[in-house]
Design a protein that fits this description.
This protein has 195 residues and is of the alpha/beta class. The chain folds into two domains: 2-50, RecR Domain 1 (Helicase, Ruva Protein, domain 3), CATH 1.10.8; 72-194, Dna Topoisomerase Vi A Subunit, Chain: A, domain 2, CATH 3.40.1360. 42% of the residues lie in helices and 14% in strands. The chain is built from seven helices and seven strands. The strands form two sheets. The protein has a five-stranded mixed β-sheet. Strand 1 and strand 2 (60-61) form a beta hairpin. Helix 4 packs across helix 7 (182-190) and helix 5 runs parallel beside helix 6 (144-157). It is elongated. Bound molecules: zinc ion (ZN). Zinc ion binds at residues 54, 56-57, 59, 65-66, 68-69.
């Protein structure tokens, strides 16, 4: 059935969705009531139409400032730098970290030698250059790219920030924060080292 294959093909574009899973989702859509399917479609449209980038940390947000940046209970003197919003979410889930974030929106590849402009380093410098930030925790992934990015970030901000730390991974290089369990992430943050 052509329309069924089309839905499967579209679902397979979602991250982590394989052919079996796409088929199961498609069967769900076939069997679901009209209101359930409409709710799904509306929620997809709603998030697409209403989500913007937080003007401060570049997390996904419904307003100009995301719920983290606009929370007065968070410690504005500490910024945790992450590669993407999924890593931010993974760290948030631990409930351990109470500072703010900065989403780089990418990483520097040691092989391709991407220009500095490809990560939001300039924007981070803007946030720290007045000297009000006491610590920046670099939480890029424990990969060659993550390490290269960490060095770039460190070099870009070191003259403005008294303490720059790198989260400590108890695992070999090659992991992804997004896939780590909450305890591992918490330990990585707790064991961060000044660089
Ligand atoms: Zn924000």
């Amino acid at each position: 059935m052509k329309i069924f294959s089309r839905l499967i093909a579209n679902l397979r574009k979602l991250p982590g969705v394989g052919p079996k899973q796409a088929e199961r989702f498609s069967l769900y859509v076939l069997k679901a009531s009209g209101s359930e399917v409409n709710e799904l479609i509306e929620s997809i449209n709603e998030i697409r139409d209403n989500t913007v980038s937080c003007r401060k940390c570049f997390n996904y947000s419904l307003k100009e400032l995301c719920h983290i940046c606009s929370d007065s209970q968070r410690n504005g003197a500490v910024i945790c730098v992450v590669e993407n919003a999924q890593d931010l979410e993974a760290i948030e889930k631990t409930g351990f970290y109470k500072g703010l974030y900065h989403v780089l929106g990418g990483y520097i590849s040691p092989v391709e030698g991407v220009e500095r402009g490809h990560i939001r380093l300039k924007e981070l410098v803007e946030r720290v250059k007045d000297g009000s930030v006491e610590e920046v925790i670099i939480a890029t992934n424990p990969s060659a790219e993550g390490e290269t990015t960490a060095i770039y970030v460190h070099n870009g901000i070191k003259e403005f920030v008294p303490k720059i730390s790198r989260i400590a991974f108890g695992i070999p290089l090659g992991g992804d924060i997004n896939y780590m369990d909450e305890l591992t992430i918490t330990h990585s943050l707790e064991g961060r080292r000044k660089i």
